[in-house]
């Protein structure tokens, strides 16, 4: 992922920085360069700003414009336009949100630090500390030596997000900047278009959605789609244009019928037809494997009324007009989305059997739906005056700071944040009826960490809807969750295998990193020794190589390097390659013999008690006796899979360099989790007989579930049990098959 905007210094033609004597009158705002027709106009910008800024604020904005114009004199964009047209366009987008004067000034100045070597102190002197801080938050880091392009990009992104955590205007200006760059991306070469569009889809689209900026969210999606898949975009665009004519009469008929029905009910409402976005249609076709002709709900309708009660009245009126589709109603007014969005959604069967989606909302909800947090962010009010949306956004921004404090690595920080940007959410309740929003797939343990890191660290149990459940239980909309804690409880390494949120994962890893440094260093030494053996290099490195390795790795000692390898922060193969490169500079240090063949390299030994350094994959749950293989992951160190695990095979095909040979150790003095599935006759006492047999076979039950098998008219029992090894499991399965009423027993894997 690359965080360079399309107007990076490499893509511009900057002139040497020069200062001009400014003898112009204070209100002079014409550009210093030539005026090009069709580009952003400062006159239009000032006209927009005059609608809500004071004369004193306008004067400051004009000063910022003049300074930016001077600094960018001689620069042109790839399109040939004067570069100043870009900051003006960014400021215009911010003006549409009615951002304050400081934000508009920062938008006009957002590239002067990065491109023209203007110092932050100079901006503080001219425009004040707040404007300078905004511009600094928008500027990429100065030329610092990073180990890789990816690390530099991740660090730049972390800087921007942390600046946003202290002032949300940073990201609003950045999104406006990215939107204008995407609108003008057509002048870039194809490879650069794809890179920038991919980055936009991966990072900026989710941020826009998370902040409720739906207009930008939709436009960035479509623009990214058009550059990532230009042929698909053009084909779909033509199909929609063709379909418009065929469906125009249907849309007109529905629009008239709805307006008449609402008027007859005495409701004052605005009704608008809307076409779904190209990317939205494409995603539905791809996810559901549909052709364009099978996507019937290309059009939707929006009903805007004057009050919340009338939203529900309008819903009943529409349901009286057309039949609703079962299961296609969602009430986002009673429980709004995490980004503040509120509306009633219902899908009705319109004329000719066509499904039609309706959104019903008030004017205030409509403003928030289109502009999200930018619609009413108040920069000078305290928390007590913040709206519900502002409070939720503030809480999310604070969680970024929590993750930053627990994470030392910029790439790790970025991965945690991207997880939390996942748009789908579930809404659950505390015992005191407070609503908590979590990403879809979040578990009870994620809920505990969302309340407070201290609660998560000391969690021992959970009650969901007043019944005790495992911590790994996935939460669903409407669940009531109560966390049980004990002061002496501590996080377990196995928690990393099922938590979903970035906050929970970073907090668990932070704790484990502190207590398991020695274990991680031991594993890291073993992994690095194995990687060095491939090149026939002994782990006892010469002092000169160690010194240069520590300098390049920004580490204080080899133990720190080993620990980083053990927790997955550094790949052993890459460290070994780095060491080999350092030795190449001195032929006397290079090994004289040839590299060892892979078959001669000793596998890493797994005991199952390594703590955070080694995780047993939850998909296949390997147990001693299984043939196993190891995957090196950035966020979970070494993950052990069975060799026949389907998930492992898919991951191996994608990243073969991240896999190493592993084997079970001897004298394993612990139990291992394993899943089994039984097909039984649903008769009295069967569960008790099965549970008793498991206990008599010296196995422990940690989870039990039941579901119907409609095809066989029987019941399936699913157990997670703790056993010693494959021999123990085989004996248990033989014993269970002898239990009356048990028809089949097998080991279960996902």
From TrEMBL:
SMART domains: HDc (SM00471), RelA_SpoT (SM00954). It is an enzyme of class 2 (transferase). Its EC number is 2.7.6.5. It holds the Pfam family TGS. One of its GO terms (cellular component) is plasma membrane. Residues 675-747 form the ACT domain. Residues 83-182 form the HD domain. Keywords: Kinase, Transferase. Residues 424-485 form the TGS domain. Residues 1-33 are annotated as: Disordered. NCBIfam families: spoT_relA. This is GTP pyrophosphokinase.
């Amino acid at each position: 992922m690359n965080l360079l905007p399309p107007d990076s210094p490499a893509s511009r033609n900057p002139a040497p920085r020069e200062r001009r004597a400014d003898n112009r009158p204070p209100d002079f705002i014409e550009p210093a360069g030539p005026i090009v027709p069709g580009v952003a106009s400062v006159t239009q910008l000032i006209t927009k700003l005059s609608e809500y800024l004071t004369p004193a604020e306008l004067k400051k904005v004009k000063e910022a414009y003049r300074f930016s114009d001077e600094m960018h004199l001689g620069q042109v964009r790839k399109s040939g336009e004067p570069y100043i047209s870009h900051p003006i366009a960014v400021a215009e987008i911010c003006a549409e949100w009615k951002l304050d004067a400081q934000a508009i000034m920062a938008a006009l100045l957002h590239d002067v630090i990065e491109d023209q070597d203007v110092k932050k102190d100079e901006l503080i002197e001219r425009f004040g500390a707040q404007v300078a801080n905004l511009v600094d938050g928008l500027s990429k880091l100065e030329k610092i030596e990073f180990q890789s392009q990816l690390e530099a990009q991740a660090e730049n992104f972390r800087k921007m997000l942390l600046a946003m955590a202290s002032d949300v205007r940073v990201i609003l200006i950045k999104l406006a900047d990215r939107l204008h760059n995407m609108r003008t991306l057509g002048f870039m070469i194809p490879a650069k278009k794809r890179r920038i569009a991919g980055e936009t889809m991966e990072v900026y689209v989710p941020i826009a959605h998370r902040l409720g900026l739906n207009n930008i969210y939709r436009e960035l999606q479509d623009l990214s789609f058009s550059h990532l898949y230009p042929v698909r975009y053009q084909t779909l665009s033509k199909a929609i244009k063709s379909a418009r004519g065929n469906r125009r009469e249907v849309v007109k008929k529905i629009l008239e019928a709805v307006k008449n029905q609402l008027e007859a009910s005495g409701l004052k409402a605005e009704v608008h037809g809307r076409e779904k976005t190209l990317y939205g249609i494409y995603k539905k076709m791809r996810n559901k494997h549909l052709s364009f002709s099978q996507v019937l709900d290309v059009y939707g309708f929006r009903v805007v009324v004057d009050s919340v009660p009338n939203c529900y009245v309008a819903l009943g009126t529409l349901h009286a007009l057309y039949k609703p589709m079962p299961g296609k109603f969602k009430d986002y007014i009673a429980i709004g989305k995490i980004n503040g969005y509120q509306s009633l959604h219902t899908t009705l069967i319109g004329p000719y059997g066509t499904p039609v989606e309706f959104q019903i909302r008030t004017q205030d909800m409509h403003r928030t739906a289109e502009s999200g947090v930018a619609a009413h962010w108040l920069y000078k009010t305290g928390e007590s005056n913040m709206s519900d949306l502002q409070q939720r956004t503030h809480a999310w921004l604070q969680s970024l700071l929590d993750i930053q404090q627990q994470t030392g690595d910029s790439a790790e920080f970025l991965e945690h944040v991207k997880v939390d940007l996942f748009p789908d959410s579930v809404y659950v309740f505390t015992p005191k009826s407070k609503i908590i929003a979590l990403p879809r797939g979040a578990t009870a343990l994620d809920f505990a960490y969302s309340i407070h890191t201290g609660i998560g660290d000391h969690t021992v149990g959970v009650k969901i809807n007043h019944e005790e459940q495992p911590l790994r239980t996935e939460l669903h909309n409407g669940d009531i969750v109560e966390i049980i804690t004990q002061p002496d409880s501590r996080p377990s390494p196995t928690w990393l295998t099922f938590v979903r949120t970035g906050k929970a994962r970073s907090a668990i890893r932070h704790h484990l990193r502190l207590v398991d440094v020695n274990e991680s260093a031991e594993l890291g030494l073993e992994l690095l020794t194995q990687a060095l053996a491939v090149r026939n290099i002994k782990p006892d490195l010469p002092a000169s190589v160690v010194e240069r390795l520590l300098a390049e790795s920004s580490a204080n000692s080899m133990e720190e390097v080993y620990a980083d390898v053990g927790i997955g922060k550094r790949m052993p193969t890459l460290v070994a390659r780095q060491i080999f490169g350092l030795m190449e500079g001195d032929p006397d240090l290079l090994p004289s013999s040839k590299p060892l063949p892979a078959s001669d390299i000793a596998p890493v030994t797994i005991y199952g008690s390594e703590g955070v350094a080694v995780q047993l994959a939850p998909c296949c749950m390997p147990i001693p006796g299984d043939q196993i293989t190891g995957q090196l992951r950035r966020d979970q160190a070494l993950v052990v899979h069975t060799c026949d695990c389907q998930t492992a095979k898919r991951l191996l095909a994608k990243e073969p360099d991240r896999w190493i040979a592993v084997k079970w150790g001897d004298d394993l003095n612990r139990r291992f989790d394993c899943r089994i599935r039984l097909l039984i006759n649903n008769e009295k006492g069967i569960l008790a007989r099965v549970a008793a047999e498991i206990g008599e076979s010296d196995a422990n039950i940690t989870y039990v579930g039941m579901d119907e098998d409609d095809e066989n008219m029987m019941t399936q029992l699913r157990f997670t049990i703790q056993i010693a090894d494959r021999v123990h499991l085989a004996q248990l399965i033989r014993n269970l098959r002898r239990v009356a009423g048990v028809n089949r027993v097998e080991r279960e894997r996902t």
